[in-house]
Each structure stands twice: as structure tokens, then as C-alpha cells.
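A quick word before the example. In earlier lectures we treated sequence and structure as two separate objects. From today on, think of them as two lines of the same record. Here is Palmitoyl-protein thioesterase ABHD10, mitochondrial written that way.
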Amino acid sequence: MTDIRFHAMPDGRQIAFRFAPGQGPTLVFLPGYMSDMAGGKATAVFEMAQATGLSCLLLDYSGCGESPGDFADGSLSRWKDEIVALVDALGLQDVVLMGSSMGGWLMLLAGLALGERLKGLVGIAPAPDFTDWGVAQMDKALLADGETIYEDNPYGPEPTPTHPGFWADGQANLLLGGEIALDCPVRLLHGQRDPDVPWEISLQLAEKLRSADVQVTLIKDGDHRLSRESDIALLLRTAAELVLPRAAAAD
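And the structure line, produced from the sequence above:
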């Protein structure tokens, strides 16, 4: 793995990232909620890119992983701006965004902001609009009143917080209610034993995307993380199939 570098945002935020230059569109991995670039899927994508000479970018949103800051200040809009700022700062002209869970919502928002630079999307259990469908009505009322809610966390010892600022920003960035104006190739991977994000969300997303080149792969025994060896192999094949033909065409 390459060394961690930091990008300074205009307000002084420091965004940790790893970047491996290479051929073709740059694979940009976007972690899920409270996750970071040290996760197994992100690491596997980076190592695959290095082994095949592809360009790859990993990053930690502010307040996550190696990026300093308070997680409670995070929001989709804030983190989307950080993604776009890094792409700009590195001078990346063509990118394929790969988003896991919440990262699958961020890949859509960042993709809309990147315009013609976006060459593809790979969603792993993508969770667009989860502040709407994933939050109980009673909890929405608490969040609207400015309270933080906490839920059991099956992936760690600490409960998972949802802060009112994050929730309100999510509600302002809902996408599944209308057409999503993206025309690039899209590949969505979703486990049918996902207890956190219903696999039907990927089908809804496929319907709302304007692109005609959208494929959904359902893994019947797959869970939310899709981090088994077979799941990661599928992810790497999917990413490579999107990027390698474009890399060859650019040579």
C-alpha cells in the first residue's frame, strides 16, 4: 500500500487518502457509514489496481479513519464535496466510483457533480435514501427535534449514532423519488440476506437511473458486507470489466 497523504480543504479540513497512479479511469472506492479505507474491500480493490497497473484512489471522509475531525459534523454533502475536491486536486479526468452501502449513495451524488468525468459506477449493497426508508417515523421526529439517535451495531461494540445534521442533509439529498440523470455503465451487487439494506433497493435504483447500461447481480446467500473471498472476487471482476476495456482503448 502507498503512504497516506492529506488534502487540505478550503476550510482547513484534512482529508486522508492513498493514491496509486496508473492507466485507465481511476477506481475511487467510497466506504460505508463509519467505515474507512482500511476495510477489506477497499484494500482488495487497491491491491488489484496496483497489481494490474490501474489507477486507484482511496480516501477517508472527514471525521472517519485517518481523517481528523468530528464524525458528528459529517454529512453526505460535506463528504461528497471532499470526494470531488480530491478528484480535482489529483487532476483525474476519468473515474469509476465504487460505493459500499452509504458509499453507494455518495457515488451517485459525487457522480452527478463530476459530470462527464464519471465513466462508471459499482455499487456494493448501495443504500441511497436510507435516512428516509431506514429510519423509523418515531426516530425521524427525534432527529427533527435535534436529538441524536443510537442503534445496536452488529459490526462493533459501540452503538451506531445518527446525528440530526446528517439526517437532515440526507433528507435534502433523496434520489429515488425521480430519475437519476446518470448515463454511464452501472453495476450493482447485493446480497439477498442483507439485514441492513433490502436488496430491492438495488432494483429500485436500477429503475431510477437514466443509464440503459445497468446490471444488478444478486448474491442469494450474501450478507450486507459482501466481504467473503468469493464476494470480493466478484467485486474485483466487476470493477476490472468496467475499467480494463477503457484502459486498453486509451493506450
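Notice the following. Helices lie at 40-52, 76-89, 102-114, 130-133, 137-144, 164-171, 200-208, 229-250. We will return to this example when we discuss secondary structure assignment.
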